[in-house]
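Progress report, Aim 2. The chain analyzed during this reporting quarter is listed below.
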Amino acid sequence: MKKLINIIFILFILFSHTFAQNINTAQSNQLPLIPKLDFITTATNAQDVSVSIQILILLTILALAPSILIMMTAFLRIVIVLSFLRRALGLQTTPPNQVIIGFALFLTFYVMSPVIDDIYNNAYKPYSQEQISFYEFLDRVQKPLKYFMLKQTREKDLALFIKLGKIPKPKGIEDLKMRVIIPAFIVSELTRAFEIGFILYIPFLIIDMVIASILMSMGMMMLPPIMISMPFKIVLFILVDGWHLLVKELILSFK
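Predicted structure tokens for the chain:
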């Protein structure tokens, strides 16, 4: 331990000495210590303005990418169901949050693969080959996401946001705006996720009730039933091949 502390102390002294030498050299040569960035210039034509606006839109989309991934894909339903499963089993931190989120992400990519392929083939490739404009690219990206969300959205949720927004009744799918579809889709996904979570809870709740009744009849009221029921719930989940069934039903729920 002392050797490690000594080595760290020596490295700190060497670093401080080198840093001080650089400062002295920079001051003697009158050179700035921090590089100067000067890449913002005035637009000289309409094309420069258009490119600047496109870059601004892309940066905005990148900033909103986490929200788009969570709220406009299958991720929302999957991660909520996995969280319900963990609570139903009585496991507080197993699997960890990183595992649940990673698993939900890969399942999301699997479910969303047709939409991703559609966007890549019909939007990104033509745009990268300069066959379509930037605004047509955004329109083609929006369409597959819109149809995916509408397939998972309940009509009553759509009607709710159309009514609250005082929007004229749309004649077809093309007339529906994303500002109506996105909140309706989120409400529908939350409802379905909670329905699946309730069904998951039932068998494990029965085990908890049986264990609690047995402990009460034996006079062991001070022993928490969860400690005894947890191994039985894990064994039941393994015997019925729970992960296989859960993943299968989750994926089929999007079909």
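Residues 71-252 form one domain. Residues 178-217 form the longest helix (40 residues). These observations will guide the mutagenesis work planned for the next reporting period.
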